[in-house]
Design goal:
The chain has about 220 residues and is an alpha+beta fold. The chain has helices at about 10-20, 55-65, 70-75, 180-200, 205-220; strands spanning about 5, 25-30, 40, 45, 75-80, 85, 90-95, 100, 110, 115-120, 125, 130-135, 135-140, 150, 155-160, 160-165, 165-175. The protein is globular. The chain starts with a strand and ends with a helix.
């Protein structure tokens, strides 16, 4: 399931992120890639020693946590710290799949879902599309600033070369209570069906039946 969510970051948050990242120090993004992805990762990543790094990470993580659509669809149980990356002219990230586990003993996160939050306006740069392989087809994504895309982290994906401007984004990886993406999609469909039924009929017998099925499937599949 690929989910695009608008307005995850507010205008004020975007302004703060852009201002702080404009003056931040960046290092070679390849240093955090696996041994094979390192060969195709050509971007920059905000240094951990930036003075406001922790505050910016909290801002992005809080935006993710307060977004009802992302919380309901992804059912997060843990997440990585947000990373901030930058693609300048000529930079790209070739075809790769994300590491299945990130972090170390005591803070390891299984990467079920990857989230990209777009910080730059799409008109401010050319290229830089996020390309995701789904079912043998490639789909291109270049969302408005403040929007997020969540997609299975086991998908092959890449970022096309930037040919004008700079592309800033924040990245988070999420461990879900339900690790199987097909089951998460089924639960998301049932949640939407519940809401549609309630809007049309209120708390009817049909609504209660669908709600019970949704709750019992989550109870059956959740890793807690």
């Amino acid at each position: 399931m690929i989910l695009c969510v608008p307005n995850v970051l507010t205008a004020d948050e975007l302004g703060t992120l852009r201002s702080e990242l404009r003056d931040a120090s960046f290092t070679d993004g390849a240093r955090t890639a696996g041994w094979s992805a390192r060969e195709v990762k050509k971007n920059l990543q905000a240094s951990d020693d930036n003075p406001n790094q922790e505050r910016l990470r909290d801002m992005v993580r809080n935006a993710f946590m307060r977004n009802g659509m992302l919380q309901t669809a992804l059912l997060p149980s843990a997440s990585t710290l947000p990373l901030f990356n930058r693609y300048d002219i000529g930079m790209e990230y070739g075809q790769h799949v994300d590491a299945p586990v990130m972090g170390g003993m005591g803070n390891a996160v299984r990467t079920d879902v990857a989230i990209t939050l777009f910080i730059s306006e799409p008109t401010s740069y050319d290229g830089g599309e996020l390309m995701i392989d789904s079912g043998g087809m490639e789909y291109a994504f270049k969302l408005d600033a403040g929007a997020a895309i969540a997609y299975p982290a086991n998908s092959l994906h890449h970022v096309t070369p930037v040919t004008r401007g700079s592309r800033h984004a924040a990245i988070i990886w999420v461990q879900s209570l339900v690790r199987d993406p097909a089951r998460r999609e089924l639960l998301w469909d049932l949640e939407n069906a519940k809401r549609q039924l309630f809007g049309r009929e209120g708390k009817s017998v049909t609504f209660d039946t669908v709600s019970r099925s949704h709750a019992n499937l989550l109870r059956m599949w959740a890793d807690v």
